[in-house]
């Protein structure tokens, strides 16, 4: 088994992204540590090669799902990927052990401010609450869920940004985020 981390990147417009694109650029500097797998590039038609995905996951020790928050969840292709790839007999079930004890984490970007993701914030739920279906899925598959890394945005009013579009943060904040992201993965 490869000791690198497989990072599944799901962003339909990665080339125009600010945060996710920068994270991918940083990951690609260390191919001996991180394998970047862009779902929209690999499957532009949405037809996922499940066997290939199984082999890819099995060849890595750790798995990180990286994506922008879309409607308080993940982009549709990542949901399809989870539905297609996490199959009975492979990821779960009496003989499904391929995710057992595998370290899995999330890396998400969101246009919304951190304080709005609070029980007393605008949306009444923390980001952790919103991401709990992922945690529950990973635990159901007996994986070792290691939490999430997040980049929070600066949205002042609901819908003021185009969905999926990211406002450019201060350069130093973006650079610090990229370095902290790699530290997060390295400490899984």
Would you kindly provide a written description of the structure presented here, covering whatever features stand out?
With 188 residues, the chain is of the alpha/beta class. The chain has a five-stranded parallel beta sheet with strand order 2-1-3-4-5, sandwiched between helices. Helix 4 links the parallel strand 3 and strand 4. Helix 1 crosses helix 7. The radius of gyration is 16 Å and the shape is globular. The relative contact order is 0.18.
Q: Key features?
A:
188 residues, alpha/beta, 5-stranded parallel sheet, 5 strands, 33% helix, 23% strand
Fold blueprint:
Blueprint: E1 2-9, H1 19-28, E2 34-38, H2 39-42, H3 50-58, E3 60-68, H4 76-85, E4 103-112, H5 127-130, H6 132-140, E5 144-155, H7 171-186
Parallel strand pairs: 1-2, 1-3, 3-4, 4-5
Helix pairs in contact: 1-7
Short précis:
The protein has helices at 19-28, 39-42, 50-58, 76-85, 127-130, 132-140, 171-186, and strands spanning 2-9, 34-38, 60-68, 103-112, 144-155.
Strands in their spatial order, largest beta sheet: 2-1-3-4-5
H/E topology pattern: EHEHHEHEHHEH
Task: Compute the average pLDDT.
Answer: 92
- The total of beta strands comes to 5
Globally, the shape reads: globular
> How would you classify the helix and strand content by structural class?
alpha/beta
How far apart, in Å, are the first and last alpha carbons? 17 Å
Radius of gyration, rounded? Answer: 16 Å
Low confidence ranges:
none
SS element count, helices: 7
Percent of residues in helices:
25-40%
Beta-sheet strand percentage? Answer: 15-25%
The largest sheet is: 5 strands, parallel
């Amino acid at each position: 088994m490869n000791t690198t981390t497989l990072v599944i990147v799901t962003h339909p417009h990665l080339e125009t992204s600010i945060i996710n694109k920068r994270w991918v650029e940083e990951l690609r500097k260390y191919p001996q540590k991180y394998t970047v797998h862009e779902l929209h590039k690999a499957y532009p038609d949405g037809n996922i090669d499940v066997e290939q995905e199984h082999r890819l996951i099995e060849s890595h020790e750790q798995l990180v799902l990286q994506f922008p928050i879309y409607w308080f969840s993940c982009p549709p292709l990542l949901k399809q990927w989870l539905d297609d790839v996490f199959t009975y007999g492979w990821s779960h079930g009496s003989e499904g052990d391929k995710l057992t004890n595998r370290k899995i984490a999330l890396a998400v970007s969101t246009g919304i401010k951190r304080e709005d993701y609070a029980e007393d914030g605008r949306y009444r739920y923390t980001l952790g609450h919103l991401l709990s279906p992922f945690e529950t899925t990973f635990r159901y598959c007996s994986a070792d869920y290691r939490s999430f890394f997040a980049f929070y945005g600066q949205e002042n009013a609901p819908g003021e940004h185009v969905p999926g579009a990211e406002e450019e943060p201060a350069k130093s904040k973006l650079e610090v985020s990229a370095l902290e992201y790699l530290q997060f993965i390295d400490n899984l």
